Amino acid sequence: MAILGILGASTLLVFTRRESRIELSPYLALGATAAEQTIKLMGDKGQIVLVAQDTSEYEMPALAAQLSAFQKTARKKAKVTIDIDRINMDAMTTMATGGRIQAEQFFKILQKHPKAGAIVLFFGFPHLTKRELDALQQKVPKIIVVAAYRPDYLDFLERGLIDLAIVPRLDALPETAKRPQTLREWFDQEYVIVAPDTAALSPR
Fold this sequence. Notes:
Elements: H1 2-13, H2 25-42, E1 45-53, H3 61-77, E2 79-87, H4 91-97, H5 103-112, E3 118-121, H6 130-136, E4 142-146, H7 152-158, E5 164-168, H8 183-190, E6 191-194, H9 196-199
């Protein structure tokens, strides 16, 4: 499970410098579906905060595709404002945290955007102390995680600390699987949505 999670992290947030050819359809599908699910949770008005890797130093076409599709879809379906908070996380920090945003950065974002209707993390959900977990129980915005699967997400979902997790599929595709033709087909082939009402049914 841990190995699959690491592989999933590479799929979602790989540090891509200049790839000659990269299939962006899965990432466009991920961003678009994340936007649709976010609006379902928070309603069609309000502020959405996207939290993503700072790409000022290195190009990340996959992440850029996710963010672009999210913004385009959200603005088409709802009257929302969208802010992007960029976090500079180098390769060593990414390895040390397992791709999770650090708790201090996470709480700074919550404090910075007290009126946000939803915060969408394109990072893993942070490791939190018991005191931090208790403080998070008072949160107002919806928290959506778009990142690699982590087993502790199930507990967070059941406790209402995470409202939705969109993660790579952990099961292998059948050999007969056809190439997707639509963004929705790309999403269904590559990702799965885990909500509080399905968390208890998921493997731990």
